[in-house]
C-alpha cells in the first residue's frame, strides 16, 4: 500500500474516485504534488463562513448520542455542522446533519445545481459512516445542497444499493492504493482541462 495511507480512507476520496480515480493514483501512489485550485480555495472560505454563521446561532452543546436521544424523547429537530464521523473503512467531516424524530438528513454542500454521481458517492459515504457509527432508528436521507444558495438540489433515502455502490468504490480505492487494481482515467476532456494534475498526467484526454 502507498506510504502514509491508513486502513481507513477519507470519504472525500469517494468523490475523487467518481470524478477521476486516476487522481488518486497520481497523488497518493505516485506522490505527485499540486497546488489547490482557485475553486478549491474559494470553497474552503465559503465552508468556513457557513460554519462561523452556524456557531453564532447554536445554543446547545451535545454529543451526537445525546442529540439523538433528545430528538427522540422531545420530538424536536437539531442541526449540527462540521460533524466528524468515522465508519469501518472511511472517515470524514459532514457539512451538516439535521436530526429529526423520523429521519436524519445528511447534507453535503456543493457548488452548482447539478448532482453528479461523484457527489452522490461522497454523501452516501457520509450516510454509511453515520449508520455504522450510531445505528440510528430513523431513516437516513442523503442530500446535496447548493453551497451558495443553500437550496437542496437532490435527496434520496440511503438504500442497500447505495451502500453496495459505496463499498465497491472503497474496494477500488483500496486496490489502487495497494496497487492490486489499475486506476482508470476519466477519458472526459472537460474534466481533464480543469484538473489540477493536468501538467503532470500522462493519461489525460484533451480535445
Overview of this protein structure:
By secondary structure, this protein is of the alpha/beta class. The protein has a single domain (9-194), classed as Lambda Exonuclease, Chain A (Alpha-Beta Complex), CATH 3.90.320. The chain has helices at residues 12-20, 22-29, 38-57, 64-74, 117-134, 160-177, 189-194; strands at 9-10, 78-86, 90-99, 103-110, 139-146, 152-157. Strands 1, 2, 3, 4, 5 and 6 form a 6-stranded mixed sheet that branches. The longest helix has 20 residues, at 38-57. It starts with 8 loop residues before the first strand and ends in a 13-residue tail after the last helix. The model is unreliable at 1-5 (pLDDT under 50).
Give the SSE layout.
Elements: E1 9-10, H1 12-20, H2 22-29, H3 38-57, H4 64-74, E2 78-86, E3 90-99, E4 103-110, H5 117-134, E5 139-146, E6 152-157, H6 160-177, H7 189-194
Parallel strand pairs: 1-3, 4-5
Antiparallel strand pairs: 2-3, 3-4, 5-6
Helix pairs in contact: 1-5, 1-6, 5-6
The H-and-E topology, N to C, reads as EHHHHEEEHEEHH
CATH class: Alpha Beta
Shape: globular
Estimated share of beta-strand residues: 15-25%
Poorly predicted residue ranges = 1-5
Mean pLDDT: 90
Number of H- or I-type helical stretches: 7
- Say what the CATH topology is: Lambda Exonuclease, Chain A
DSSP strand count: 6
What does the main sheet amount to? Answer: 6 strands, mixed
End-to-end CA span? 34 Å
Question: What is the name of the CATH architecture?
Answer: Alpha-Beta Complex
Class per helix and strand makeup: alpha/beta
Number of domains: 1
Rounded to an integer in angstroms, the radius of gyration calculated over CA atoms is 18 Å
Classify the helix fraction into a percent range: 40-55%
